Amino acid sequence: MAADTQNHASRRSQGRLIGYARVSTDEQATEAQQIELRASGCDQIVDEHGSGASRARPALAKLVREIAAGDTLVVVRLDRLARSVSHLLEVIEDLTAKGAHFRSLRDPIDTTTPQGMFSLQVLGAVAQLERALISECTKAGIKAAKAKGRMPGNPGIRDRLPEALAKMKTAQKASYGARVQATAQQWLPTVRRMRPDHTWDDIARFLKQRGLAWSPERLRRAVKWLVTEGMADAALLRKSPPRLPEDRLMTLVAGIQSSNPQLTLREISSQLERLHERTPRGGTKWAPSSVKNLLDRAKRNGLLSEA
Q1: Which CATH class is domain 2-116?
Q2: What's the chain's Rg over C-alpha atoms?
Q3: Strands 44-49 and 101-104, bridge-based pairing
């Protein structure tokens, strides 16, 4: 027991313990989970209300995106975090890529210990077996259907029946809309600040610096859907004016600074040189003063807060 307490104290000294508490509906409360998480040493707790059958969890996505190396994400039970073994492994893989850890209080999963990593490997093997079994069952079902003269898939869609195609299109639109709405709070405020003064390329580049992978076309399509549904201003889709090369640099520098506010002007200069970005005057060596001028412009244009 003493050794276990010492191990936990050691982990706290290396990084934060951040709790994640989730309930399925707004009517339910996370107090019970919070009490257990705080008792385990979590000073910060992120709450979320979301169905266990859905992966659309903006608060969890933001937590994983912003967690620092050495920190540990803590949950009361595995089902509070993930909807399936594969989803759990995806989240843990994202944490591992950032140098962070994961721990479940009621399950033998703690990626800071050898025993916890072994349990995780067992889960991975189970997930792989589950995928293989599903694949084999699917193939067997298709083979049996063909032997009986039946073709796999929806007959209406296969025969291109208008009613079946219309239902499929409606379902696809609903699924796409749900995905857009689930993540909109992460990127839509930035789009509203930058459009239509900045191109979709500029905005996608800025979001990428903040860890959000959007292509210009996917971003424009998502905003178009929100406008069509009356959830965003149509002015966001107006054509942007021609941009000077210096405006692109301003957006890039603002994105670098936004992704890591602790960077010094000289460190940002070094990053720009590693990216082989030319200075506003066409040079290859960046001076901190040039970076400061671009950051000041970004603040005046609303890309960065004055703070």
Answers
A1: alpha beta
A2: 24
A3: unpaired
Q: Which two tokens stand for residue 96?
A: 């591992």
Taking phi over 0 as left and psi of -120 to 50 as alpha, with beta for the rest, 52 belongs to alpha
Is residue 84 within a helix (H) or strand (E), and if so which, with residue range? none
User: Per DSSP, what are the bridge partners of residue 224?
Assistant: none
Task: Provide the pLDDT confidence category of residue 45 given band limits of 50, 70 and 90.
Answer: very high
267's tokens: 């460190």
> In this structure, are residues 102 and 95 in contact, taking their beta carbons and an 8 Å threshold?
yes
Find residue 75's DSSP bridge partners: 104
Instruction: Decide if 91 contacts 119 (C-beta within 8 A).
Output: no
Mind telling me the catalytic residues? 24
pLDDT of residue 287: 92
φ, ψ for residue 260, nearest 5 deg: -150, 85
Contact in structure between 291 and 272 (CB atoms under 8 Å): yes
**What are 217's two structure tokens?**
């076309």
Name the region of 29 (left: φ>0; alpha: ψ -120 to 50; beta: rest): beta
pLDDT 10s digits, 15-30: 899 999 988 765 567 7
Instruction: Give 70's contacts (C-beta < 8 A, 6+ positions apart).
Output: 14, 15, 16, 99, 100, 101
Task: Tell me the longest C-alpha to C-alpha distance in the chain.
Answer: 75
DSSP lists the bridge partners of residue 74 as: 19, 103
Structure tokens at 97: 């890529």
Phi, psi of 17 (to 5 degrees): -100, 115
pTM as predicted: 0.42
Average pLDDT score, the chain: 80
